[in-house]
């Protein structure tokens, strides 16, 4: 009895201490655990709760999306299941950067579970049909990185999921590649751990190989290559096979891929229950030579029936049939990889870890299916956009909400909006196209208003636009951006605004306050508010609100 007990205790304690994570690094086309040099294979599951449709929530304090990694009760509940499933990584699609993740990240780490996190959220992402890489999206990405970089078990960040997903949307790809470039640069500039940055693509036969090439190719000086690459792949259904599923072809296609590649989602559900036999193929040779495992889709069950547990509505979860199948596959396989030393030897220059140490790869040429410029959009420039905002007389009204994109379309049928327009197929990026959607809308309003000789009646658009205190060049002369430069200089010496040059001065991309405001147009109260406000586009609203009483009297 005693003996049995102590054996059990030893086993148990071994189980509890064996886990715990240490940072992963990318060397060549493999992930490695830095503490022991072992190759790391994803035995993952997508872990993202959704609000049930029409479920009420407090919009003033809660996000439209759910972040379970900020909810200790829930992540503890699920951790038991995740451990039982044998997963070593979860993919989380939405992080609320204002929340604290210490607790969940710690217990996951102690259980040997890594996290790969998407940086976007539904309202702040690169839209395949109307793509921009702007200050607001970049800002969102930065705050997520700021809030998550400190956890050693963050395996990587994804700058996008299935953005360019067919031949009709390929021109959105440069915006995603710019996001890779700028988030990598941001992590470096902040001195954070070099957390790998990558992208999760879909599996469209017409563009699959062009997309994969695009994220690792370098034309000229471009440094926006991904540190890893994911494909959401649903080719293997039921009891398929390596030969017939398409896995064999994918393995051949990607065998010389320069960065790690894995299935960022898998788990076709046309056959139910899902036997998950693809896991055995994915985590054995020859696939282990090419792929780093994958992320089963998904933990929670919703309408489309991909889940392995169901939430009960009383805060519990119950296991569904697929749970056992997935668990049995994951716990019975232990893929064998190569050691970090061998990976280092196999890279071109003996490998700085996470430094994309591979020989330059040429970008594929455009085809009728693949219309993508090798020119990526510029890094979003906060200072420029804040100064632009400061120059407006006619702006979006803060008193109503409107569909800014519709408003822009409406205005731009009448005036030339090239400065806020983009074309990723041609590599044309208007000089204010990196400003936020609201700033772009205000810019269009302002151009329209100026074109009509500053006629106040032309700044209305059914109440969607509003005039603020007139600005003039003197103001731009006296307003300084965070980097100390005068807005007039940032926007291009010889304002009017429409003459601003593309190369904007001041590489400082920090989000920040506008300092040194001493324009006559602001009195002391307003100036104080400005120096406390964080962004000029909020600032215009503050001015407005402060002056609302006056304005409404007019
Ligand atoms: C955590 O999630 C549960 C279940 O969804 C919910 O009832 C609870 O309010 C959440 N707690 C916090 C702090 O959000
Ligand atoms: C986007 O944000 C708006 C306003 O904040 C909100 O009403 C809407 O539900 C959000 N949509 C999504 C998909 O999150
Ligand atoms: C890596 O290369 C070095 C130098 O050529 C060699 O001594 C070492 O054995 C190699 N290591 C592996 C694991 O191949
Ligand atoms: C400053 O301007 C604000 C907004 O117009 C106004 O409410 C406030 O009374 C002014 N303060 C002074 C000291 O003039």
From TrEMBL:
GO terms for biological process: fungal-type cell wall (1->3)-beta-D-glucan biosynthetic process; fungal-type cell wall organization. GO terms for molecular function: 1,3-beta-glucanosyltransferase activity. It is an enzyme of class 2 (transferase). Its EC number is 2.4.1.-. Keywords: Disulfide bond, Glycoprotein, GPI-anchor, Lipoprotein, Membrane, Signal, Transferase. It comes from the Eukaryota. Residues 1-19 form the signal peptide. It is a lipid-anchor; GPI-anchor. Belongs to the glycosyl hydrolase 72 family. The keyword Signal applies. Splits internally a 1,3-beta-glucan molecule and transfers the newly generated reducing end (the donor) to the non-reducing end of another 1,3-beta-glucan molecule (the acceptor) forming a 1,3-beta linkage, resulting in the elongation of 1,3-beta-glucan chains in the cell wall. It is found in: Cell membrane; Membrane. Its main location: membrane. The keyword Cell membrane does not apply. This is 1,3-beta-glucanosyltransferase. Residues 392-478 form the X8 domain. InterPro entries: GH, Glucanosyltransferase, X8. GO terms for cellular component: extracellular vesicle; plasma membrane; side of membrane; yeast-form cell wall. It comes from Scheffersomyces spartinae.
